[in-house]
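Hey, sorry to bother you again with one of my protein questions. I've been puzzling over a protein and I'd love to understand its fold better. Take your time with it, there's no hurry, and the full record follows here:
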Amino acid sequence: MDLRTTPFNGRVAHVSLKGQIEADRFVEGELMRVVYSIADFFRAPHGARDRQLLSGQAFRVLDIQDEWAFGFSEYDGYCGWILYQALLATEHTTHRVWTRESFWRAEPELKYDALDSPKYLGSEVRVFQTTGDWSCIGPDQYMPSVHLKRIEDFETDTVAVARRLLGAPYVWGGNSARGIDCSGLVQAAFRACGISCPGDSDLQMNMAGIALDAGDPLQPGDLLFWKGHVAMATGPDAMIHANAHHMAVVEEAIEPALARISATDTGPITLRLRPSLPTG
């Protein structure tokens, strides 16, 4: 049983697991949304960070223990613990941030100081009304409308989305421009394009798609996997990835990168994957 994808904490389980496991309670859970700019997602209370959720993203709470909430991300089903104070039961979102990073201000004015609560690429908001070039997302909260896209307006180029995060610092388990890891970069790009994508590289290896032979030319959006690492091809000879060698998101030539990575404990490429994309 993979605890990352099984909504069960040893005591409470999601109703979808009835008849499959034994649990004290089976619940539907409560849908809540992240109110922090970034909320760390832990494998256990006070444990190691596995991933992150961003402001406005949905989390289904199945159990609460002290200050911790157990549940799963509505987007990919990733399970874990989040600080309960980082969540709020709120209405559906209408827009998401498509730029690398945005902000909100207390007044819809360009020269009004931005408050220290950034919204990162992929964050979701509810727009109540627009005032000129500004979108009201709450009481005394205004964001530049140009930084937002409607939730249903997906992008079409995963590489273009990934390139928006060039230079972002490498952070294990990170999912934002403030800090991101290899699988977080891939997920951010695919999520912006409306494509289902798990959060960790070993799970991403099982995405629907075509396994490529070593001699097959790479296309933009193809994925390259190593043990514990993933990169996205930006063309036949280049790739983009968040990595600990550069401690950042970089785009580089594939062949020198292959030689460098193969000389480490990561080893050689294990899979070249052309993910299946939605049609129509």
In short: The mean pLDDT is 95. Residues 182-192 form the longest helix (11 residues). The two ends are 35 Å apart (CA to CA).
